[in-house]
Amino acid sequence: MNKFSSFSNYTKVRYWTSKSIEPGEELFTSYGDHWFDSRDIILYSTPSKSEISSRIDINTLYDFGFCLSDVFVDKSNILLAGRGLFAGRSYTKGDIVTLSPAVILPKNEVFQVTSNTVFQNYLIADPSCDFPVVLLPLGVCVAINHESSLVSNVKIVLNFRSELGSDVLDKPLNEMTPVELSKLPFAPVDLIFVATRNILPNEEITLNYGVEWIHAWSRYLAQVVERNSLNSDSLSLHEDPLFRHPIMISNLFPSTWCPKFSCENSSCSTCSA
């Protein structure tokens, strides 16, 4: 097993193979019997191996697949950042560095219940207009730290996975309202992280979190320095209040998500598109 492919979003958790896995084979793990019970799912028989072991052709993987083990998580080089995501190989400008499925959540409800939890730090919002949703990434991209536009090396592109759920949905994903999308039983979009410049092997992957996030972080550091009477090289950020703020990427969401009646920004390029 490649050491880079064993990372989990949960600290120090590793996943190991319980049997041989062929290229193109889907990965499964047991959630426990309670997972089915809590969802009122009754299994009358256990699916056969042939029913669950369908494989993607190796040529299809080469043509359309994406290698998630080309990046790895390690201690960040950025002050106070903790862990970060690093390039396992070189990338050229325009390459896809990594990608992640994202869950669409209703913004107001999420902010009400997560204002004091670290959960909010991993949410992605679009401040261009007052969109009623936020995105929650599910992959290793949650380890990507902030740097300014002059230093950062990736940007986010939103991609609808329209092939999912096509047999049960009444209309295409990109035509659904944010409320409809937030109620889907699966993650309907991918966050694609594209290189904005050439990236060297072992270089940390960084993203500009947006002006709003930068201002919020600056205010927070100023409060910490004032509270502790310490300089920024010896800050302790493990005391309340802890920093809580979503990533704010302008013009990320499609124009169909922008409710013009609630947008107060007359120069919003997303809404005027």
Kindly describe this structure:
The chain has 6 helices and 10 strands. It is an alpha+beta fold and about 270 residues long. It has a 4-stranded mixed beta sheet, with no helix packed on it. A 4-stranded antiparallel beta sheet has the order 5-3-8-7. It has a two-stranded parallel ribbon with strand order 4-10. Residues about 1-10 and about 260-273 have low confidence and may be disordered.
Order of H and E elements: HHHEEEHEEEEHEEHE
Sheet-strand content, in percent, reads 15-25%
**What is the distance, rounded to the nearest whole angstrom, between the alpha carbons of the first and last residues?**
46 Å
Q: Give the full name of the CATH homologous superfamily.
A: SET domain
Please, how many helices? 6
Integer average pLDDT = 77
Provide a concise account of the structure shown.
With 273 residues, this protein is α+β, with helices and mostly antiparallel strands.
Keywords:
273 residues, alpha+beta, Beta-clip-like, 4-stranded mixed β-sheet, 4-stranded antiparallel β-sheet, 17% helix, disordered N terminus, disordered C terminus
